[in-house]
From TrEMBL:
Signal peptide: none annotated. Residues 1-41 are annotated as: Disordered. Belongs to the glycosyl hydrolase 3 family. Keywords: Hydrolase. It comes from the Bacteria. Residues 716-785 form the Fibronectin type III-like domain. It comes from Streptomyces sindenensis. Coiled coil: none annotated. This is Beta-glucosidase. Gene3D superfamilies: Glycoside hydrolase family 3 C-terminal domain, Glycoside hydrolase, family 3, N-terminal domain, Immunoglobulins. InterPro entries: Cellulose_deg_GH3, Fn3-like, GH, Glyco_hydro_3_C, Glyco_hydro_3_C_sf, Glyco_hydro_3_N, Glyco_hydro_3_N_sf, Ig-like_fold. The keyword Cell cycle does not apply. The keyword Hydrolase applies. The lineage of its organism: Bacteria, Bacillati, Actinomycetota, Actinomycetes, Kitasatosporales.
């Protein structure tokens, strides 16, 4: 293709002029084949690309970080210390690809924010020749990250539920709220598999097992996409495997660990969820940054797995190719490397894909075909979202009833304020269900449940830094922490009952006395005396310990808040020890973003209740578990260490990664992956192996009975692990390949039947291909990774079989209720 250089230094196709297409405007008459709903999205995108100048194409590949106006006016560019100021008047005549976080940058009333976004979209569409609005994206890691929106439990709590359908339901609710105010894309879920719990972002992950991560994340994507929101898988790939658990540190892992652990959840989500976007990781693996890894972003993701959506940059990640990774000498080189690898959209704001990329194109250093490839993906997605339809309007559904026939009018901001609720009663009820099912009972000597009513301890001492702190239930991406903390004096926007308030409501017949005892990460022990005195005078101590979420060192958990070891922050362990010394029963209650070693409490506490930042209804959920009103059903998505310095470790370790006589370090956890107690007992029996021999193309079938033998209803989580005793490459001792939750009343039993395809025994062989080998295997039906209940020896026969991304990823599990309560 021959090319011209326009007066802005941007190359454009010969014969293409600025008047190649008529102006459309935001709501005016839209003509041109790109507005024709009778054509396929691809045909509409291609027609538009043919009419666009190069600068107009580039404009679709960038976002601008903005904040909605609390007065309902147009958004204002957010000034970040890593970027230069953005001039919208200069950008918008050429178009704009994305608006970054209009609701998640500063506190704004949801209705007024929707009005501000609507007016901005009208301006964007009206300013460019084709009437193309921007795609607006937001964070939604623990709910829609907007002021006044429901704060759900963090992803580590999603994993603790072992309940994909519940997480799908939650994600659909989050998506509906986002879509109602004009948002199109959500930057979630995180599919990073935990490799080292010292990493500050553990709270954002789903767990340490790739199958659990994959199934829960896939369910979340399905829910978000069902609401019309473009879900975004992140961080692709390997971010969580950074050395020493340090954020954005180099990643140390081999090709098999990457293929069998890190990539597995992404593969499942791409194949099964309908996801439409992927975000590259910041990190490099073996010297290749993900943002410049064509084998990863194009060869594997697109050519092999068949992904056809957009790849977006993690914030500033393309510029990092120059500034952090040193694989690009200029921002233009960084842009070319990312574009060539398969990154389609630069976020959060225009930097490398602006003038630097334009200059590289003008010098012939980057092919315009790469721009066309990326902009086609962007435009197809905008067509799918309805942004190029002839009847598109800028006002979102939340404003439909409040706006006039011509859209919101001047002065509407005051009328609209308070009319959009993003934290409805239905949302809170859903948040409560997730929180309740995510609470994990780690230890119990019989002290729990506390009878709600006259049978509760007469005097309860509620002690600890998280006993009376409203934000103790929130992770670092919840709006009140992530953004609200930068705006002191601004109301939280949602009701966050403290644990003290929740316990007072749950135990109205008990006298509740409180003391802080210590700060989360402080060094002072001055509060110990008061705490000990209250404990000695009480019948029971509920000790609320854990984390304070924050960003980049402003918390003990969260992005950039990595830990040197897994000792409880500050002097919390000392506080725990002095309270154990009082002799009063201590129920340790953790509101945290990661697991911690708990020292003497593992053996001496009356009970240990683990929650991972359980969201706005978290304290109510915890109190209901303490009382027994809610039966505990959560299971650990990550192991709880016995020793604070035993990281990195995981239940997925090979034999050499477990305790041995040749090392003085014992990595065995105090409480293993999948562990969780209930208030009843279960018996597992009657194992029947219906099909114990199969070819490497076949499947096994086995079944067992699980019975609630106690006097209370409860939930058992049947976990199926595969143990491969002899393989051609070193394997984990065992790995999760399936699970199912069973809710059983007293005396009830269920027959669990599992059909296990040989594909689930596959792994990456010596030549880099995934294979199924013949030989003996063991299928363990377990209550946790260290609590096998029944085991079946099975055998694969036949030749070694090579499998690919079309292999079966799941076993079939069916359950049948056998008996009712006597």
């Amino acid at each position: 293709m021959t090319a011209n250089i326009d007066n802005a230094g941007v190359r454009k196709a010969a014969g293409t002029t600025e008047s190649a297409a008529p102006a459309s405007g935001a709501t005016g008459h839209r003509t041109g084949p790109w507005h024709d709903p009778g054509l396929t999205p691809e045909a509409r995108a291609d027609a538009l690309i043919d009419a666009m100048t190069l600068r107009e194409k580039l404009a679709q590949l960038v976002g601008v970080w903005v904040g909605a106006s609390d007065e309902g006016g147009e958004v204002a560019p957010f000034q970040h210390d890593m970027e230069e100021a953005v001039d919208l008047d200069d950008l918008l005549p050429h178009g704009l690809g994305q608006l970054t976080r209009p609701f998640g940058t500063a506190p704004v009333d949801p209705a007024v924010g929707a009005l501000s976004l609507s007016r901005t979209q009208e301006r964007i569409a009206g300013a460019n020749r084709f009437g193309i609005p921007a795609l607006a994206h937001e964070e939604c890691l623990a709910g829609f990250a907007a002021w006044g929106a429901t704060a759900y439990p963090v992803p580590l709590s999603w994993g603790a539920t072992f309940h994909p359908e519940l997480i799908r339901e939650m994600a659909a609710a989050i998506g509906r709220d986002m879509r109602s105010v004009g948002v199109h894309q959500g930057l979630a879920p995180v599919l990073d598999v935990v490799r080292d719990t010292r990493w500050g972002r553990v709270e954002e992950t789903i767990g340490e097992d790739p199958y659990l991560v994959g199934t829960i994340a896939t369910a979340y994507v399905r829910g978000l996409e069902s609401a019309g929101i473009v879900a975004t898988l992140k961080h692709f790939a390997g971010y969580s495997a950074s050395r020493a658990g340090r954020n954005l540190a180099p990643v140390g892992m081999g090709a098999r660990e990457r293929a069998d652990i890190i990539l597995t959840p992404f593969e499942m989500a791409v194949r099964e969820s309908g996801v439409r976007s992927v975000m590259h990781a910041y990190t490099d693996t073996d010297g290749i940054p993900s943002a410049a890894d064509a084998q990863l972003l194009t060869g594997l993701l697109r050519d092999t797995w068949g992904f056809d959506g957009t790849v977006v940059a993690d914030y500033f990640g393309i510029a990092f190719l120059k500034t952090l990774h040193g694989v690009a000498g200029t921002f233009g080189e960084a842009a070319g490397a990312a574009l060539g690898a398969g990154v389609d959209v630069e976020l959060p704001t225009v930097k490398t894909f602006g003038d630097p990329l334009a200059d590289a194109l003008a010098q012939g250093l980057v092919s315009e075909a790469l721009v066309d490839r990326a902009v086609r993906r962007v435009l197809v997605q905008k067509v799918q979202l309805g942004l190029l339809d002839a009847d598109w309007r800028p006002d979102p559904p939340a404003l439909a009833g409040a706006a006039g026939p011509d859209g919101p009018a001047e002065g509407d901001s005051q009328v609209l304020r308070g009319t959009v609720r993003l934290d409805t009663d239905e949302n809170r009820a859903l948040a409560r269900r997730v929180a309740q099912q995510a609470v994990v009972l780690l230890r119990n000597d019989g002290t729990l449940p506390l009878a709600a009513g006259s049978g509760t301890p007469p005097r309860i001492a509620l002690i600890g830094p998280n006993a009376d702190t409203r934000t103790a239930v929130l992770g670092c991406y919840a709006f009140p922490v992530h953004v609200g903390s930068l705006h002191p004096g601004t109301p939280l926007g949602i009701d966050l009952p403290t644990l003290r308030e929740a316990c007072a409501a749950e135990f109205p017949h008990s006298e509740l006395v409180t003391a802080r005892g210590a700060d989360i990460d402080g060094t002072s022990t001055d509060g110990f005396g008061e705490a000990v005195e209250l404990a000695r005078g009480a019948d029971l101590v509920i000790l609320a310990l854990g984390d304070r979420a924050g960003l980049f060192g402003r918390g003990t958990s969260g992005e950039g808040c990595d830990a040197e070891d897994l000792v409880l922050p500050g002097v919390q362990q000392q506080l725990l020890d002095v309270l154990l010394d009082t002799g009063t029963p201590v129920v340790v209650t953790l509101l945290a973003g990661r697991p911690y070693a708990l020292g003497r409490a593992v053996d001496e506490a009356a009970a240990i209740v683990q929650s991972f930042f359980p969201g706005e209804e978290g304290t109510t959920a915890i109190a209901s578990v303490l009382s027994g009103r809610t039966a505990p059903s959560g299971r650990l998505p990550v192991g709880v260490p016995r020793h604070p310095g035993s990281q990195p470790s995981t239940y997925l370790a090979a034999r050499l990664g477990h305790a041995s006589d040749v090392s003085s370090v014992d990595p065995a956890p105090a409480f293993a992956f999948g562990h969780g107690l209930t208030y009843t007992e279960f018996a597992w029996d009657d194992l029947v192996v219906e099909r114990g021999r199969a070819t490497t193309e076949g499947e096994f079938t086995l079944s067992c009975t699980v019975r609630n033998t106690g006097a209370r209803e409860g939930t058992e989580v049947v976990q199926v692990y595969l143990h491969d005793p002899v393989a051609s490459v070193v394997q984990p001792v065992q790995r999760l390949i399936g699970y199912v939750r069973l809710d059983l009343g007293p005396g009830q039993a269920a027959r669990v039947r599992a059909t296990v395809p040989a594909d689930l025994a596959s792994f990456t062989g010596r030549d880099g291909h995934r294979i199924v080998e013949p030989g003996d295997l063991e299928l363990r039906l377990s209550a946790s990774s260290d609590a096998p209940r029944l085991a079946a020896r099975v055998t694969l026969t036949g030749p070694v079989r090579t499998v690919d991304h079309t292999r079966r990823l799941h076993m079939d599990i069916t359950t049948e209720l056998l008996t009712d309560t006597p």
